[in-house]
């Protein structure tokens, strides 16, 4: 009998605790964080630091995959139904901007765009929507400059060298990066005729692999290759294509952008054509945008319309572990 009473007491204590924590969770401010490509380490890192912001400040982040327009708009409905007050979004397509803005207004959700800026029906950026992103053109220029420095160090004959540019023109940040990179190649004396645009159908490794592969087949006379693209995956697909075409790592130089998505590559025992990557700040992107929405919904502090984030550090086999650890990303 005593034991039964004890059990009862324990059970009700547990039930009570459960009720308390449910009440607390219901009271917490909720903020959504929607990303277009949840499989990319870049976005996983943004999520991780959004969670950190929430933990540091006692609120909750609802992390949602938004790979297309339909799921994005449905996610906004469910955010509102769950009592969220606002959200951060990297949209699957910037041209969804007007629909996302209309839906957020109707649901009374505050919003900050990250990484990919919304484009209005007139084709111009929607500058009224608070946005945090990097200086894409400058990072692209840095990529091109570093590639040329390494090609010169290797003593390559530029007449025998091709440059594959994995492009994705419908995304402005991608266009800014690859065009900046090409500008630097030309400024450093790379022959224009050896620059080949490879339009990517999708922004992932298969997309850049296929497009790069076509360029390699079309230009069998080239002995060395520079591989360019808007992010790590755009460059990695190109590197895989050069390997498939029989090029050795010594004849290929690729430098990614993001830094987060090359860890497995730089950990490989065998050196590959991926020389390094420009490590950006997904930690800042994730933490800061989440705090911008949080401060907006809890204190009425409206975020700036544009918050540029500009640091980029070259990571290579020698220093990637140290750099990523320093930034809390390893
Ligand atoms: C785009 C790319 C991501 C990352 C971010 C950085 O969204 O798809 O891989 O480079 O930009 O802002």
Describe this structure in words.
With 330 residues, the chain is of the alpha/beta class. It contains eleven helices and twelve strands. Strands 2-1-3-4-5-11 form a six-stranded parallel β-sheet, with helices on both faces. Helix 2 (41-57) crosses helix 10, helix 3 packs parallel to helix 4 and helix 5 (136-153) runs parallel beside helix 6 (172-187). The radius of gyration is 23 Å and the shape is elongated. Residues 1-23 have low confidence and may be disordered.
The ligands bound in this entry are: alpha-D-galactopyranose
Helix % is 40-55%
The strand order across the widest sheet is: 2-1-3-4-5-11
SSE ordering = HEHEHEHEEHEHEHEHEHEHEEH
First and last CA, distance? 55 Å
Strand content: 15-25%
Tally of DSSP helical segments? 11
- Whole-number radius of gyration? 23 Å
Low-confidence stretches: 1-23
Structural class: alpha/beta
* Net shape: elongated
Number of strands: 12
Largest sheet at a glance? 6 strands, parallel
Overall average pLDDT: 94
What descriptors fit this protein?
alpha/beta, six-stranded parallel β-sheet, 12 strands, six-stranded mixed β-sheet, elongated, binds alpha-D-galactopyranose, 330 residues
Brief summary of the model shown:
The protein is α/β, with parallel strands linked by helices.
